[in-house]
Amino acid sequence: MECTEPDCEETAAVELHIPWAENRVVCSGHARVFARQDGIVADPLTDAGDEWS
Fold first, then answer.
1. pLDDT per residue over 14-36, tens digit each?
2. Which of 17, 22, 31, 34 is the most buried (most CB within 10 A)?
3. CA neighbor of 33 nearest in space, from 53, 16, 45, 47
């Protein structure tokens, strides 16, 4: 599964739970940026393997 962010072709490694929008699956790089915002919870995908490191 690919990251859902525009112009990103990385493998999705994390599901972001966003209270004010739909949940997203993103790569670890985008997850690190978004997870710094209050209220967003980042859950590593079970099949992400080493992508979330």
1. 999 999 999 999 999 999 999 99
2. 31
3. 16
Reported pTM: 0.82
Q: How far apart are CA 44 and CA 24, in angstroms?
A: 12
**What are the residues whose beta carbons fall under 8 Å from the beta carbon of 32, sequence distance 6 or more?**
none
C-alpha span between 1 and 12 (Å, rounded): 6
Specify burial of residue 29 (Cβ count, 10 A radius: 0-12, 13-18, 19+): middle
State residue 33 phi and psi, 5-degree precision: -70, -50
**In sequence order, what are the residues at sequence separation of 6 or more whose Cβ sits closer than 8 angstroms to the Cβ of residue 38?**
none
